[in-house]
Amino acid sequence: MKAVVQDRYGSPDVLEFRDVEPPAASGNEILVRVHAASVNAYDWHVMRGDPYLARLTGVGVTAPRRKIRGRDFAGRVEAVGRDVRRFRPGDEVYGDLGTADGAFAEYVCVSEDLVEPKPANLTFEQAAAVPLAGHTALKGLRDLQPGQHVLVNGASGGVGTFAVQIAKSLGATVTGVCRTRNAELVASLGADHVIDYTVDDFTRNGTRYDLVLDLVGNHSLTGLRRALTPGGTIVLSGGGVFGGGSLVGPMWLMIRAKLLAPFVRDRLLVLTTTLDREILAELRHLAESGGFTPVIDRTYSLEEVPAAVRYVETEHARAKVVITV
């Protein structure tokens, strides 16, 4: 089968489109014919091995342990292992491979516990855009209550476009922060207020929010806390864009938040997105009930994955970038 393979850390030039042995399903695994995948900040972080500290978490110290990039996928079940009970060949599914990676390929093999039926109202391309970004947005808004005010910093990005829509579906008043060219998009997703960060600094304009979902990591904890109501919540989950190799990158803000959290009244939460099939099911129900519609910025072919990853890591991509297979 064709796949995008990485043997060493580096720029998108290290991603090679070539033939590899196809996987085979056994036990509780299903073999999925991939129709679409999507690009996340996670993909270029692993491609670069950046920040360097992340290499010690199992990604690989001198080279990536997993050779095929890509987490999110949507496609049709091709074959099932003998212990699979939930799916059969021909079923349309979507999922997140997590740190196992491998979605930038014609086929993936995955445990049935990490897969859900594809939302019926979404195309394969739209469904592939959902798992990691939608999962992150939904978990980041878990503490949100109807009527509360939430600010999404990075509202036009992959996670942000889901967060704005999900927050509105939860009954919140939503303020989205983005650059000038994306203001109309963020407003169209339902944001009640849009802040152009090139003109206004939300940490200094005096407005307070019950929850700040920071998807960028471009403000200090002091600044973020200044934008909170007393006892409010900050949720950190920043991907950013590539600015050269770093030791800790956006992890430094998260480390500081964990160290400070026990000593302040505000809630400082660092978001982790461990795989959770229940959240995939919840996202499917949200999509089918009109809670959100995935926004796709650009699509690329499987052979064009290096260009797609380069676009996401350097160009402040709007919404999601999708790979068609």
Could you explain the architecture of this structure?
Helix 3 crosses helix 4 (158-169). The chain contains nine helices and 15 strands. The mean pLDDT is 91. It has 325 residues and is α/β, with parallel strands linked by helices. It has helices spanning 41-48, 124-128, 131-140, 158-169, 183-188, 221-226, 251-260, 277-288, 305-314; strands spanning 2-6, 15-19, 29-39, 72-80, 92-96, 107-111, 115-117, 149-153, 173-178, 193-196, 209-214, 228-236, 267-270, 296-301, 320-324. Helices cover 24% and strands 27% of the residues. The chain folds into two domains: 2-129 and 294-324, Medium-chain alcohol dehydrogenases, catalytic domain (Quinone Oxidoreductase, Chain A, domain 1), CATH 3.90.180.10; 133-270, NAD(P)-binding Rossmann-like Domain (Rossmann fold, 3-Layer(aba) Sandwich). It starts with a strand and ends with a strand. The strands form three sheets. Strands 3, 4, 5, 6, 7, 14 and 15 form a seven-stranded mixed beta sheet that branches. It has a six-stranded parallel beta sheet with strand order 10-9-8-11-12-13, with helices on both faces. A two-stranded antiparallel sheet has the order 1-2.
Proportion in β-strands = 25-35%
Q: What structural class do the secondary elements suggest?
A: alpha/beta
Number of DSSP-assigned strands: 15
Q: What is the helix/strand order?
A: EEEHEEEEHHEHEHEEHEHEHEHE
CATH superfamily (homologous) name of the largest domain: Medium-chain alcohol dehydrogenases, catalytic domain
Protein name: NADPH:quinone reductase
Domain Enoyl reductase (ER): 10-323
InterPro entries: ADH-like_N, ER, GroES-like_sf, NAD(P)-bd_dom_sf, Quin_OxRdtase/zeta-crystal_CS, YIM1/Zinc_Alcohol_DH_Fams
Pfam family, one: ADH_N
